[in-house]
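[audit] Reproducing an earlier prediction to check determinism. Same input, same settings, fresh worker. If the tokens differ from the archived copy the diff job will pick it up downstream; this log only records the rerun itself.
[audit] input (216 residues):
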Amino acid sequence: MEATRLLNRVLEIEALLIQQTRIIERMLPTDFMKFRDFLGGASGLQSVQFREIEFLSGLKDERFVLALDRQSDDYERLKGRFDGPSLWDGFRSVLARDGFDIELSPEEKKLSEGERINRKLDREVRALTEVYSSGLHFALVQLAESLITHDENFALWRYLHMEMVERLIGQKPGTGQVEVKEVTGRLLTGVEYLKGTQAKRFFPALWMARTSMTSA
């Protein structure tokens, strides 16, 4: 499947990014502080490209869009990603194409938003359990495994990034403190904000399906 081949190339790039955090964190805090001021207000939180990757992967938070100047190119780019399809949307379309029942019924669509989300997730988990357990959908399994590796890579990068920040500046405010307050409504140190991102996942159904597949 071409999607799997392309995604696996992305996974190789992510592996390189994970390795690079090791290089930076080997720096002494005193050495880092010698040039930190030259970074100015630059912050990963301000990276529109990083948010595009999150949105494209399915982790969409409109607060990051609303924090941007509506007249800017960055706003248009991120708004486009927010409104556009995600990787998970694409994977769901493949499941539907192959005959898996993942769409809500007309009655279910009338439920509250929270109930609709839960029903949709239940259907996805059931479909994924069948995909993995039947032994008849090798291409889908390979694509699903590449997706969950992408998710895992980001979770690992988030953790290593948090540890790197604490190792270099401790509990000091990060360079993006103003942007953190705009998005979260609270003044947080860099490490406090990053700790709050550790539970983020792109594809919760892929993780939940593990429990379903291994239940006695």
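[audit] rerun output stored. Observation attached for the diff report: The chain has a mean pLDDT of 87.
[audit] end
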